[in-house]
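FORM 7B: Structural annotation worksheet

SECTION A. Query
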Amino acid sequence: MKKTLKTLALVLALVMAFGCFGATAFAADDLIFTTGGSAGTYYAFGGVLAQKVGELTDTTVTAVTSDGSKANIEALEMGDADIAFVQSDVMAYGYNGERLFEEAYADFSTVAAMYMEQVQIVTLDPDIKSVADLEGKSVSIGAAGSGVYFNAIDILGAYDLTEDDIKAEFKSFDESTEALQDGSIDAAFIVAGAPTNAVTSLAAQNDVYLVNLDDEHIDKLTESSPYYSKNVISKDAYGTEEDVTTVAIGAVVIANDSVSEDDVYNFVSTVFENLDDLAHDKASELSLEFASSVTSVPYHPGAAKYFAEKDIEVPVKEAE
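SECTION B. Predicted structure
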């Protein structure tokens, strides 16, 4: 069954890949890299990483769209994907069987932490200046069952609000920005590295505002949920009048434990040895220090091999 599902995923991936990169010949044992929605950073950056690994090694990687972190972990578990982008908090939920997951999915390991992704509360209403101002408003809190949903619930909770205190809508990034554009919602939670394509497109036609989080409520949030950290989105990201203070979580690449050590080594080494040649803004945010900082899920042996060459020790997933 897994083989059938993965074969179907590969066929779909090839169709998408042809559209994104032209008619390219892929090997039958491609690594399927499940990323995120087509308007998000995961998919755009994932395509760049996949292409570079394929150019420089004999490991071929095909980046495909997905419904985000939870779906990506489930795809690994089902055998429909080999590597995936995930939020650091959702990764921990999946590994431990918490919140989004009724059971633990422990058959994956860390490849590398890539960059921080900000919780962006986006609105076209200049009167929405605080999370408290979302009370009674129509707000997209991410696709149903997504990591964004729990980020939204966590931040609302820090301001003593719940899902019942807003008019909750469950929309993807694209759907959220379209709904903001047509006025059917007042604000949207979008969790991705800024600038995010969906928000950039919205800002090209509208005055976009991002909601600031204050230090008091950030401290309250990080005390109860330590995987968040204070972060600042530059005013240059979307042309806002000022920098915006928010919180962020890590964007991490994980791999199924069944992926070979050589393939994961090829992926990690290619990315971090060619940072200047990666055609995406996020490449400038990558560092070996951050890449090796994950503690919640052990690293794949292929990743650990590369970090050891750089005199960096990481916790390694033991073979069963």
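SECTION C. Observations
The chain has eleven helices and ten strands. The chain has two domains: 2-116+251-309, 118-249.

SECTION D. Sign-off
Analyst initials: ____
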